[in-house]
Design a protein that fits this description.
about 290 residues; alpha/beta; 6-stranded mixed beta sheet; 4-stranded parallel beta sheet; 10 strands
């Protein structure tokens, strides 16, 4: 049986085992046991400070003996090594391809490059700020641009995580933690959002050929990293300068390949779901 978790504790369970509906269970562990779950899809909202309740959901699934698949970045930042090691001990998979750039194969790609040493990366990983800055270039105010992003379904009602750079910082931390195997705290990433940018500054930047983008940067320094998320002016003819709308871009620097870039052009509504589906296929070994 496959179970889908959407913060389902205290929600209605339809149990094939008992044949009863509207059965409420007090804990995720009880829910997993009653459902006899083989796989948990975890898709709760991001908690920047703790990664909860997603961390507990995934931990419970692995202890239960189920594969765990998540689209939530929090567990990667706050509990990656614990959950990774628990999955190995249980002989199960802990997968999270949809956490960065929707379903684009980033985390599953690097294992295909054995012995590669990742030195750093930079890119544009938050589509909400991309849309807002694009609309500001067209003359809309910050508030008008945010409202348009919300109407398009790109920005949430409370877009604080996007505007203030938290979403991009969490994605940056996830990439550092997994691909560079360096534990990093969110407070170690220098973070600035786009809230202070004015329409005039954004329009002038575009006019002068140096548009503003919210850029994530990471560079290996000794045994650690130097990382930042902040608005930058980038050359309009550069790959980052051409990123607009809901598109994303990341450029990896490795010891073998000095530059390895991935661009995601305006993903559709099903991109994140595809990433979880792809992880399901990987978990099933197909």
């Amino acid at each position: 049986m496959i179970c889908v978790d959407m913060n389902c504790v205290e929600r209605t369970l339809l149990s094939a085992k008992t044949g009863k509906s509207d059965q409420k269970l007090a804990t995720v562990q009880a829910w997993l046991a009653a459902a006899q779950a083989d796989i948990l899809f975890e898709a709760t909202s991001l908690n920047v400070q703790t990664g909860q309740p997603a961390v507990d959901h995934i931990r419970a699934a692995l202890h239960h003996g189920a594969h765990a698949i998540t689209a939530n970045k929090g567990p990667i930042v706050h509990a990656y090594r614990e959950l990774r090691d628990l999955a190995v001990a249980q002989g199960k998979r802990f997968l999270f391809e949809s956490t960065v750039m929707d379903g684009v194969p980033i985390f599953s790609f690097f294992p295909q490059l054995p012995l590669i040493h990742l030195q750093g990366f930079h890119g544009i990983l938050n589509s909400t700020t991309n849309v807002i800055l694009s609309e500001m270039e067209n003359g809309l105010s910050f508030d008008e641009s945010l409202k348009k992003a919300q109407e398009l379904g790109v920005a949430e009602t409370d877009a604080t995580h996007d505007i203030d750079g938290w979403d991009a910082a969490v994605k940056t931390a996830a990439l550092i933690t997994v691909l560079m195997d360096i534990p990093v705290r969110l407070e170690d990433i220098h973070r600035e959002g786009i809230r202070e940018l004015t329409t005039n500054a954004v329009r002038n930047g575009r006019r002068d050929g140096w548009p503003f983008k919210l850029v994530c940067r990471t560079q290996r320094v000794g045994d650690g990293v130097k990382a930042s998320v902040m608005p930058e002016k980038v050359l309009s003819s550069s790959p980052m300068g051409r990123i607009s709308g809901t598109s994303s871009y990341i450029y990896f620097e490795t010891d073998i390949f000095p530059g390895l870039a991935i661009t995601e052009e305006n993903p559709g509504l099903f991109a994140t779901a595809y990433g979880m589906l792809a992880d399901f296929v990987r978990a099933m070994g197909r």
